[in-house]
Amino acid sequence: MTCLLVAITATLGWNLQSLSFDFEFEKFFPNNHPDSKAYAKHTKQFGYDNDYLHIILENKDGIFNSDFLNRASKFERSLVKIEDVENVYSPLSLHHVIKSPTGIVIFPLIHSENPKEYQLKQDSSRIFGNPFYRSAFSEDGKAISIYLNHAHFGDQARSERLLNAIKAKAEKNGIEDIRLVGKLSAAGVFISYIQNDFGKFLIGSLVLSFGLLLLIFRNFKSALLPFFISLLSIVWLFGLIGMMGFKINLLSSLLPPILFFVSMSDAVHLMNALKKSSHLGRVDKIKNALSIVWVPTLLTSVTTAIGFLSLMWINTEPVQLLGLFAAAGILIAFVMTFSFGLLMASITSYKSNEATIEIPHGWLTFITEKKWLVISMVSLIVFMLIPGIGQLKINSFLLDDLPKDSQVRLDFEYADAQLGGSKPYEVRVEVADTALSIWDKKVMDEIVKIEEYLLNQYPIAKVQSPATIVKYLSMVNNGGLNENYAYPENERNYLQTLRLKDRIDPKRLDKIVTEDSQVGRLIGFFPELGSYETGLRNEKMLKYLSKHVDTSVISYQITGTTYLIDKSHELLSINLLKGLFTAILVIGIILGIYFKSWKLLVISLIPNIIPLIMVAGVLGWLGISLKMTTSIIFTIAFGIAVDDTIHMMSYYLKNKEKNPHKRMLETFNHAGSAMLITSIIMSAGFSLYLFSNFGATYYLGLFVSLSLIIALVIDLTILPILLIKFQKDVK
User: Does a cis peptide bond (omega within 30 degrees of 0) precede residue 101?
Assistant: First the structure.
């Protein structure tokens, strides 16, 4: 048995080196959702809208500085030579085109190579007076944006290589102030924080928990058993994850503390039962301990695993994997506890006089004599917090979990403030009548309505669309003057303008219109508004378009990464809460069957639902929004907290003592002390995450710790009152 455990542990431990980290936004999109299917179709025609970087170059003396423009131009030309760069667009390489009586006249939009002062003034006037050009420059005129389109990456190594190459090119060309805004820069910093927290807080949890176990038990061997079982459970689970080739993402990075403390809870309850049986012989001690904790621990493991397996019903891969791996880890911990744990127990003796934490003897007397005061206080707090639940709203900000001084967050905020936005926005339009094309005026008239709404009412500062191209061609056709950048209403002028379309680089058109001219896109960038506000604006726009756009001519649909991220946060938050209610229902049924009483079913759920209500109320009153990383807290908290309730109820109901007060005292002495130990260790362990700079980790630590403390208080106050009342009613 020992050799087998050692062999399996060594094999799985070896596979830990195969673990890697992942932050693919697309994996968080709900599988088989209509919006996800539409986006998949859209990407086949136009590529991924998130495969871009805005490279923002700043110059304190302003953009129109000959030395800066010369260096910036060289930098831009060097970008196309970097591996994985597909296209580079910027005003530095753009030409201003004029149709004159003598033909087409082309000259640089910006004279970057040895320009005359008057040329720079003309360039500045032309650019800042034209919305087509203006969007690539900052509001203060001190920064210019280069748009880089890159390959779709599946691994972080290629992403980092590209980012490093861009920074190296900037340094080589004397570009000092550079900002990188896009998925690559955001994903890189997210992965960095996940990696740092994953390692730092796992080690911190190990050190803190072992220190607390030593402090509580005051015996190295006693502290080693629960600690070693928890450590082995983590090694087994993550060894399996590495062996199967799965990557660690934002959600699965939460697994170590969950598994560590759940497995420790199992081991501490076994330890406590062994200590209480230490007056018996070795074999009898183990038998007696098993009779106390085997069934309750099996029940807690199954119910907690079911709680996490409820996440499998959410049709999103990272959430499903979290549910699957958490459930597997919990069952691994159970097997570890009653195999390796008992193996260690069979060769180790535990002294009965070892120090531990006990519930004060007068506590039960106090809560029974003052039960109405206790119930009133808990009820008052609950009723005060319930209105906070009504304040909760589902809202997420892409970079809200990053520290406010994070350079990536500052870069995105700069793009929002100075360049119109950092988040891509996309509307897909498709010709309803296949006899027509995107370029027919009848179709273009409808596209213009969408573009005008986006520009003027949404509003979105930058929009590129088939209509944008027509407006630009109209300007070219009418002397290149800024005031002529407008949509030609007249059919004759429209057709005349459209003849210039063949002069445009086909690669630029491919990004806007499909080759068969049946599908087009309106793409732009807008500031971070939060998913809640963005959702309201989307609803308002769709309501407007339904009244003003002729759907017999074109169909339209909001799509793109930004839309799906916001949508997935909303769906995930709702589904996580639905999964929680499902888990409560399933666990309630199991407990009802086990306790053979619907009253005990209700009693078992009350101590675990009250903490959830309180935490939800606190979230609401503090103005903390529900999103994926906060909604998951409820599932984790419920899954962990229900364990202590089951252990306490199981021991109380199994006890043959007829006097309810004495029966509860014995329950406190046995299950109660283990509950105190596990709750203290788990709360302290999760509290370590309060030192994280990463928002998701911080809130996990804060609210799981809070919910565990509340659950412990309810288990030691309301639960005893209910159980004693139940026993008296039965009599």
Answer: no
